[in-house]
Amino acid sequence: MDFSSFLTSLGTSFVIFVILMLLFTWLSRKPGNTVVYYPNRILKGLDPWEGGSRTRNPFAWVREAVSSSEEDVINMSGVDTAVYFVFLSTVLSILVLYGIILLPVLLPLAATEKRVYVTNSTSEGTFNELDKLSMGHVKEKSPRLWAFLIATYWVSFVTYFLLWKAYKHVSGLRAKALMSPEAKAEQFAVLVRDIPPPPEGQTIKEQVDSYFKSIYPETFYRSMVVTNNKEVNKIYEELEGYKKKLARAEAIYTKSKELGKPEGSRPSMRTGFLGLIGKEVDSIEYFNEKIKELVPKLEAAQKVTLREKQLRSALIFFNSRVAAASASQSLHAQMVDKWTVTEAPEPRQLLWSNLKVKFFERVIRQYVIYIIVALTILFYMIPIGLISALTTLDNLKKFLPFLKPIINIDAIKIVLEAYLPQIALIVFLALLPKLLLFLSKAEGIPSVSHAVRATSGKYFYFTVLNVFLGVTIGGTLFRTFKKIQKDPNSLVDLLGNGLPGNATFFLTFVALKFFVGYGLELSRLVPLIIYHLKRKYLCKTEAELKEAWAPGDFGYATRVPGDMLIITIVLCYSVIAPLIIPFGVVYFGLGWLVLRNQALKVFVPSFESYGKMWPHMHTRILASLLLFQITMLGFFGLKKFYYTPFLIPLPIISLIFVYVCWKKFYRSFHNTPLEVACHELKEVPNMEQIFRSFIPPSLNSEKADDEQFEDALSQVSRMGSFA
Amino acid sequence: MDFSSFLTSLGTSFVIFVILMLLFTWLSRKPGNTVVYYPNRILKGLDPWEGGSRTRNPFAWVREAVSSSEEDVINMSGVDTAVYFVFLSTVLSILVLYGIILLPVLLPLAATEKRVYVTNSTSEGTFNELDKLSMGHVKEKSPRLWAFLIATYWVSFVTYFLLWKAYKHVSGLRAKALMSPEAKAEQFAVLVRDIPPPPEGQTIKEQVDSYFKSIYPETFYRSMVVTNNKEVNKIYEELEGYKKKLARAEAIYTKSKELGKPEGSRPSMRTGFLGLIGKEVDSIEYFNEKIKELVPKLEAAQKVTLREKQLRSALIFFNSRVAAASASQSLHAQMVDKWTVTEAPEPRQLLWSNLKVKFFERVIRQYVIYIIVALTILFYMIPIGLISALTTLDNLKKFLPFLKPIINIDAIKIVLEAYLPQIALIVFLALLPKLLLFLSKAEGIPSVSHAVRATSGKYFYFTVLNVFLGVTIGGTLFRTFKKIQKDPNSLVDLLGNGLPGNATFFLTFVALKFFVGYGLELSRLVPLIIYHLKRKYLCKTEAELKEAWAPGDFGYATRVPGDMLIITIVLCYSVIAPLIIPFGVVYFGLGWLVLRNQALKVFVPSFESYGKMWPHMHTRILASLLLFQITMLGFFGLKKFYYTPFLIPLPIISLIFVYVCWKKFYRSFHNTPLEVACHELKEVPNMEQIFRSFIPPSLNSEKADDEQFEDALSQVSRMGSFA
């Protein structure tokens, strides 16, 4: 790719972004679109345009985003979102600090190096204007390499310093949220799994109650045995479906009264397959009948489930936060694979069907899935390598000669050259996350947030290995194929050789991601169109409409690995081709602004894990740093720089840093520290309400009496606390 | 070594053992020796000869040992000793099961192999009668190797099965001891380290009290801040020294009255250096004066220590076992390196000076010491290798030709050949444990039992690496030196080559250890002689006499690695030279008998860790098994057996077995499970007594009032529990 096609790519991306931003300014001012652009505010019961949002100034949202405080983010979107912003701003400051030193020092050093003869045979003929600004342009054994070596140290230590500060800050955020005086249901509960078979003549519920009453005579409140809800869920969903359909039929009937005849036309339907065949009936009557039929059926199924389908897992409720926090960290049974107790996740993020998975089954599932994921990563490596090699224009012409006439048109040529490989890559990557989330859930993880973290981790390794290493090695392999055949090089050499040549590919990739990606994010064009289509042709009732504009959450499972890929790319190229740093700064700066807007106004988080995502992100940034350090070792070696061994301490320091952070901070992200849990509550917690919040909707009786919960959901303890 | 010298070695060892056993029978019947042969019974206040021990039957002790139950051992010597016997009996049954299959099958298979020509060049000329019974005698690619391969599987699975059973059994023993209805002081306390600096105007004690009162308003009883006792200990020891000397002087005076003049002769002494120079004074008066001087000085020092020398560490007492067990497992502070809480060890095994060591300092110390130990192991490797190579008689003659005339005398030759290398080895090994114990304590470990386990672990790796591998590789290197020079082999090949040649060396080593070692152990000749010498020439008072016969404890730090070395040797040779199995059986059988006697009558354990040694032993047996499996892989490879890859699953199964055991059992050895801690006590615990049992003797005031403990040792909490 030459310089002009690079500028074209950058230019068109920027134009698209400006257009999308103007569209956003125009569209978000229309009252009919508030539910698309301000759903979070609306759901929180706030005025969407409070604070003068409705101006014609296309940068008004920027001002609002910048002026919002961390407190605002936590109030509007929770701790997890605030932690994500700590991540964004930390990376942003890391990159800014890189740039301040590296750009003014390294770029002139590289550009002013006089090369009479290109000695590096692998990059022969591929050098262009951009490559002159990179370390690849510096001669072998040149004393100028000292500056690059010191830059490597600067990059490492800036990263350590800011990550340490960020970890402390996040740790404080988490503690503050956990010690909040508001009672949160999950802070009073623990999850027990691997309950041994109950003794003869006892139900699991009785066994659980007597076990925990004997250990916690004063703080045990009540237990809720997990049941196999498959059947009751089926009936419940059927019932809910009929209720929705009834509401829809009634809405149609009401509307027909308004529009046509004053007595209205009652909607009718056929009862057979897809409403196409069978007897024609009055819809409203039919659905009412069905509901009347199902309600007692549901009640009966609930009773049966609660009594007879108890599983070997339970939620235990305590009447104080300290008791629950302490219980979740203590070993209860002599055999570690029995009565395993962990912190209870929020009710909304419990993965009920995973709770019954046994101790060693979880371990086995985990390893099996690791193997599957490893195979997936290796399997995907092949097509991505091919894509990277094939989708350069020259290769296209070579392998698909019939395309030649089209490609030779200048305009098409430039656009294709600029975007083809990147688009191929992005499309390719969109296929995987669902598979990884499914696999993560199959590990037997009990909460959604944990599954999301597990997915994010898998996806990170996937993207780094495949996209970054795949493109680099794939591209290099193709270019240096003949050379390799003669003398197969090691991976480190390959990396060192491949990196400079692929710098412009990644520059364009980053630019595409931030301009087009964040432009689409901000303008919400796709959700807007879908919403308007649904509103016009599908939705009849308020509930359906609300479902149509439900904004979704941040989607950390893919968002975080996406950001991580950018960090890895920018980090690894930071010293080799410092020109990438400004691109990284724009990516994270723009990302911060756009997502701040989305966090305050659009996305509604679907769970709260109190920042448990942070250690995950922290470790992966450091993994990228380690990759960078090892790459630099290889690259300096290739430059035949005598003082390359001076870099050897860096990976060791990184590993020590990871270890120290892990030792100092990690456990308080895994467990709730007691000094945090012991903070006073605003008022005595309503234990009944806390208990009820964990009852799955399909088991939640409308009568709200305790009688039918007697079975799997145990009674209030009559001892101690409330005596 | 030829067959006759082997038999000589065995024979003399056996004769020594018989003599020692007869000596034991004779000596232990003398009333004057009861304190040497029955100290544990005497200290427990039991009649030494209860149950007819005083017979002339030299096997009476065997009958008693066999008829004693595990319960008896726990009562007389604690859970740790009982666990040690589980270890001995498990290994014994493992070896018996090996022998039942391996001996009748493999020995004939090896012996009946017809070898016209010795193909294995490395063992050329070293084959003798014993070697014919080993796998080394089987021809390459022989189908008979199938039997040896299946034997390898048998050995592995017997080990897994019996270890699993033993782990379950020990886990039960531990739980039973921990749930005992007797209140044990350490079960009510936790150890807090890494207390952050107290806020302005607060003492550490106030800070600790308010911190734990706020977390445990109902179960917190009292705290005891650790102080820097260096100065007070010095005064206390001085005082105790004078008290002892006074008692001694008084005893001499009393005796002189009985013997000589009725008014007696008052002992006198000089006050100067070593009592040799200076003014002559009356001893009794002088010591009394000194004591009178020191008592107020001690009290003043105690007050200063308690008030001003508080360290950032404390013991926290709870009024229930569950509360303490739960607290010791919970994270208290948001920063994991602050307020770290662990289970409190027994008062008698607290290493006070280690309690102040900070979190990351402990980590650093640990790694530094690992490096030192690794260097020690490597450093010792060289001399041991030399010893093994040099102390064969032929080499002695070669290198020290002036010894030739002595060595050529037949009797001396046989004895030297039989014992020289083994004695050199045993002496060499006796030098190390003290160094390793010192290093382990320097890690910052808070309890003696933990330091002993750490020492035992280090010593195990040392013995296995140096003795076993060192002798094997050293011996082989020497023999095949020229071959190696041409073609340096890998370690596995070396092992495979070296093992058969060294089998007889280890046979003699094991025999020496059990006959002479256990003979000396049983007869207690050395302690007996020392005791009688001391009684006659040194001891004047009852206290001094009691000190002279103090029996000591089992000394697990060296005993367990010693046993482990035998296990490693027997395991590794079990299939290659099955003749070693009976030797192993005798070692552990005899060991069980002799030590059972010592446990019931002699040794007094110096600590109780409720079987925490077991996971340590379990893992190391499996490490030996893994070494065995890898050795077999190499050995079958050398035999050019096509089906060698059938052995590859074994090391993997071993690792899975280690992992599963660790997951299922380990945590309940590290922490006290709550279901165990919640068992009812016989009576309400005397908290004051529990608290007082932790006060170090130098701080223990004789006045027994609370006033002076107000400072570092906090007052009884006035809240909750006792209200």
- Largest sheet descriptor of chain A: 4 strands, antiparallel
Q: How would you classify the helix and strand content of chain A by structural class?
A: mainly alpha
What is the overall shape of chain A? globular
How helix-rich are the residues of chain A, as a percent range? 55-70%
Q: Strand order of the main beta sheet of chain A, please? A: 2-5-1-6
β content of chain A, as a range? under 5%
**Which chain pair shows the most residues in contact?**
A-B, 39 and 39 residues
The low-confidence runs of chain A, each spanning 5 or more residues with pLDDT under 50, are: 117-127, 481-489, 703-708, 714-723
The total strand number of chain A stands at 6
What is the terminal separation of chain A in angstroms?
A: 79 Å
Oligomer: homodimer
Query: What number is the mean pLDDT of chain A?
Result: 81
Key words describing this protein structure:
homodimer; 723 residues; mainly alpha; 3 domains; four-stranded antiparallel beta sheet; two-stranded antiparallel ribbon; 26 helices; 6 strands; disordered C terminus; CSC1/OSCA1-like_7TM (chains A, B); ion channel (chains A, B); calcium (chains A, B); calcium-activated cation channel activity (chains A, B); CSC1/OSCA1-like_cyt (chains A, B)
Quick summary of this structure?
Chains A, B: This is CSC1-like protein ERD4. The first copy, chain A, has 723 residues and is mainly alpha-helical.
